[in-house]
Amino acid sequence: MLDNLTQRLAKVVKTMRGEARLTETNTAEMLREVRLALLEADVALPAVREFIAKVKEKALGEDVISSLTPGQALVGVVQRELAALMGADLGAAASQLNFATQPPAIILMAGLQGVGKTTSVGKLAKFLRENHKKKVLTVSADVYRPAAIAQLQSVTEQVGADFFPSHSTDKPVDIALAALDFAKKHHHDVLIIDTAGRLGIDAAMMEEIAAVHTAVKPIETLFVVDAMVGQDAVNSARAFHDALPLTGIILTKLDGDSRGGAALSVRHITGVPIKFSGVSEKMDGLEAFDASRMANRILG
Ligand code: GDP
Predict the structure, then answer these.
(1) CB neighbours of 93 closer than 8 A, spacing ≥ 6?
(2) Fewest CB within 10 angstroms: 68, 87, 155, 245, which?
(3) Rounded to whole angstroms, how far apart are CA atoms 142 and 63?
């Protein structure tokens, strides 16, 4: 079991009783513990460095209220900054999808294979139907795995949304355009496009999804990433961020036992808000992302 950060810092500050300020010396020692906690949570090093620098700047010279120890005061700064970095200031707004367009609002899903894209399409369709009363159409542009198309059909039917069938002989761009045409004719409010994911990053896959993006100009492009993957999230986030103008992130598998450091790394690289968390395999396992809760979880 990892010590929680408050306990860790309590050990460090035992030696600094009576200090009423966060100083260069006491802060530096405590920040070493914060850095370790973040690395243990699998946050990527560049994100850790940037975060520590920001906390240091905020903490130095901060008066410690008499009821707090310097350790508690620093934990406060760390928690606040971490939550802010992950979008706490955005509040519920971070989870709002943008529908300010001529219907259908198109949502393009991007991410590696196995991260939970197709499952998240189903969850999102259910969420939009139930919470926003939207008429939703889904389509799969994964022409490499017929099983992926069947899986999307199954989750779509499960949540009572409409499914546009595609065939593995079609081209992804043609599939997306045909689905868009269908959605317009049948007055769908939202079209969610699931895309192929490879096990690793692959130039052809990036070109393909970029071509779909150019063809249909989605209002939301959501990068789906698995909270369990830790450091690997960095490479895929960078590749998708370089290839596509992402508008948000869905962080899946937060019901697992990872500390979720990927959240901070991915946010650091893409700069876009984490809009939703996946918290189970079931169709109701999608929640608005809670930045403060995530901050506490990462800190252990
Ligand atoms: P895709 O290849 O990205 O489309 O991934 P899938 O949607 O097929 O999901 C891969 C596996 O992850 C499936 O077994 C899903 O049930 C599972 N999965 C997806 N999202 C979650 C989640 O939030 N929590 C858990 N525990 N499992 C999930």
Answers:
(1) none
(2) 245
(3) 56
